[in-house]
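Recall that a protein's primary structure is simply its ordered list of amino acids. Everything else, from secondary elements to tertiary packing, is in principle encoded there. The following example makes that idea concrete.
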Amino acid sequence: MVAHRNGVRCRSVQAAFAVPAIPEPVPVTLDPARTAVLALDLTDLLAGTVAACLETIPRVRALLDRARDAGAAVVFSTGRSPGQAVLPGLAPRPSEPVVSTSADKFHGTELARHLIGRDVAVLCGTNANGSILYTAMGACARGLTVVVADDGISSKHPFGTALARWQLLHQPGFPNLDNAPLRPKAVTLSRTDLIAFAPAGDRG
């Protein structure tokens, strides 16, 4: 009976609030020498049967290829369970590190070391309300500016992705409520086709 009352109360709270508006993704141009692209949890175990994730793979692949061609760093992650493999077509190159842990990919891994010399992290992948959200928070806490590819993230449930989009811009201590492009030590929501790479000296 208690569970029922709590469930009713939860639905009443949900009904009392409108879905918050989330700013549109914005274009950004990044210096590849200062940028790392993190592809999070795109594995057979965590993403292989998630339709919303599989739908993002062509866009993520194109983003990774452009980042590599420009000279940006690329880092992959898996979850904690052993035996996971990055999805076919996204396999890391020999020089690209893979870290394995739970939601915050900095926790207990060498991710911070792999990002030395980089001050912008571009995030894409699945478990948006887990790996994307908590790794973004960890990156901002370490002084990095974060770009999240809005059309390159996913969750098992659409609400998880919507929640992550809102929370990424409302992080305690690192807000970017209006989604200003490349606000330092905060998250910018962009899109795979709006993320460009160009050396700082080559910009007009």
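Strands lie at 28-30, 35-40, 73-78, 98-100, 120-125, 145-153, 187-190, 195-197. Residues 133 and 167 are 8 Å apart (CA to CA).
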